[in-house]
């Protein structure tokens, strides 16, 4: 089994940032990533992300590619195409994927597994799209009738994206509206249903009205199923609860960063910032242990030298 200082689960902005800082501070992190490339949700973002201040006109996909190249270029060990399926805590270490060829162990564990689009129990298919970004961008909506499910920013923003792609009809179904005014107010109220509704993906109807496509934009759910056995504290929505100062979870030496912890406004910059906080905290603990070992060795060396010195003194007298 390969051993590291730190196992980082997920190579999105949060996990990549944490691993880069740890590597830069002289430690041995490893990233385990389900996808074939690092960069996380930015891989699914075909739009310009102009909220990372020094970058202008970078699309999410380009940011993801930059993350991937930066991490691999530093020689950080990455297991790509590998999902963490289990975590076990032993006395001194965490073991992931025990019994599998991808098994790894480390003294510290960082949960950076992000979020996945909430599906409300609906299954994705050729006529049922789940989540914003790439799934929506890849479809030719011309002349199609589209039901958008959800009442948040993503639902209202994607209403306009799908309209611009010349759908014949777009209708939002929202149990309640949470979208910010900049997405909500330009949306004609005649295209918005607020209140309960029924979805039938076999008949392709919403509250009895037929549609060519149904787009599910129910927000995000934490991707944390693999860590159930650890028993980390979660909030009522399932996100991991952490200490704001360190990002440590309720389990000692387990940290949670980025969207899986949802402790700051979720976006790439806060995810990366979280990675730095976790990296620094782990570095201090690793350094403290290394210092203890160094001092113990120094004291041992001192003890070993003493009898010899005393004998030397004796002979010279
Ligand atoms: C369409 C779209 C537009 C966006 N626009 C912006 C924007 O303009 N500005 C902005 O700042 N942010 C934007 N975001 C959000 C931004 O991408 C996220 O906030 C950011 O990626 C979160 O980083 P993260 O590292 O916490 O999680 P993620 O990016 O979700 O990364 C988590 C990683 O963990 C991996 N993973 C999950 N479970 C496992 C497992 N069991 N084993 C191994 N790996 C696992 C996932 O595959 C993923 O790669 C957008 C997102 C989308 C989808």
Strand tally is 17
Distance between the ends: 57 Å
Helix content, binned percent: 25-40%
Bound molecules: flavin-adenine dinucleotide
Which structural category do the helix and sheet elements fall into?
A: alpha/beta
- Element order, helices and strands? EHEHEEEEEEHEHEHEEEEEEEH
- Under CATH, the topology of the largest domain can be stated as FAD/NAD(P)-binding domain
Q: Rg, please?
A: 25 Å
Query: So what's the overall shape?
Result: elongated
Strand portion:
15-25%
Look at the structure and name the CATH superfamily of the largest domain. Answer: FAD/NAD(P)-binding domain
Reported for the largest beta sheet, the result is:
7 strands, mixed
- Low-pLDDT windows of residues: 312-317
* Number of helices, where a helix is a run of at least 4 consecutive DSSP H or I residues: 6
CATH class of the largest domain: Alpha Beta
Tell me, rounded to a whole number, the average pLDDT. Answer: 94
CATH architecture of the largest domain: 3-Layer(bba) Sandwich
Number of domains: 2
Could you explain the architecture of this structure?
This protein has 317 residues and is an alpha/beta fold. The protein folds into 2 domains: 2-117 and 220-295, FAD/NAD(P)-binding domain (3-Layer(bba) Sandwich); 128-216, FAD/NAD(P)-binding domain (3-Layer(bba) Sandwich). The chain contains 6 helices and 17 strands. The protein has helices at 13-24, 60-73, 134-137, 153-164, 181-184, 268-316; strands at 2-9, 29-32, 77-79, 87-89, 94-96, 104-111, 115-117, 128-130, 145-149, 169-174, 192-194, 199-200, 205-206, 209-210, 213-216, 220-222, 254-256. The strands form 4 sheets. Strands 1, 2, 3, 4, 5, 6 and 17 form a 7-stranded mixed sheet that branches. The protein has a 5-stranded parallel sheet with strand order 8-15-9-10-11, covered by helices on one side. Strand 4 (87-89) and strand 5 form a beta hairpin. Helix 1 runs parallel beside helix 6. The radius of gyration is 25 Å and the shape is elongated. The chain starts with a strand and ends with a helix. Mean pLDDT is 94; it is low at 312-317. It binds flavin-adenine dinucleotide. Residues 9-15, 32-35, 40-42, 44-45, 47, 49, 51, 60, 83-84, 112-115, 132-133, 223, 226, 258-259, 266-269, 271 line the site of flavin-adenine dinucleotide.
């Amino acid at each position: 089994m390969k051993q590291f200082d730190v196992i980082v689960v997920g190579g999105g902005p949060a996990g990549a940032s944490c691993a880069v800082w740890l590597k830069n501070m002289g430690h041995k992190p490893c990233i385990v990533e389900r996808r074939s490339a690092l960069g996380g949700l930015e891989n699914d973002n075909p739009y310009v992300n102009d909220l990372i201040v020094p970058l202008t006109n970078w699309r999410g996909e380009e940011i993801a590619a930059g993350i991937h190249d930066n991490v691999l270029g530093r020689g950080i060990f990455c297991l790509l195409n590998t999902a963490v399926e289990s975590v076990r805590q032993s006395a001194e270490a965490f073991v992931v994927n025990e019994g599998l060829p991808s098994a790894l162990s480390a003294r510290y564990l960082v949960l950076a597994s992000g979020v996945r689009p909430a599906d409300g129990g609906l299954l994705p298919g050729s006529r049922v799209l789940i989540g914003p970004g790439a799934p929506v961008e890849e479809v030719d909506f011309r002349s199609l009738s589209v039901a958008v499910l959800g009442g948040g920013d993503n639902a209202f923003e994607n209403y306009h994206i799908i309209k611009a792609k010349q759908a014949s009809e777009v209708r939002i179904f929202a149990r309640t509206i949470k979208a910010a005014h900049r997405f909500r107010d330009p949306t004609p109220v005649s295209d918005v249903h607020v209140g309960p509704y029924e979805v039938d993906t076999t008949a392709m109807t919403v509250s009895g009205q037929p549609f060519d496509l149904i787009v599910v934009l129910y927000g995000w759910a934490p991707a944390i199923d693999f860590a159930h056995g650890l028993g980390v504290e979660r909030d009522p929505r399932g996100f991991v609860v952490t200490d704001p100062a360190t990002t440590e979870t309720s389990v000692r030496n387990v940290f949670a960063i980025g969207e899986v912890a949802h402790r700051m406004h979720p976006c790439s910059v806060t995810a990366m910032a979280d990675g730095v906080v976790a990296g620094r905290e782990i570095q201090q603990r690793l350094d403290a242990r290394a210092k203890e070992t160094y001092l113990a060795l120094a004291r041992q060396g001192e003890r070993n030298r003493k009898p010899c010195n005393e004998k030397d003194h004796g002979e010279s007298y």
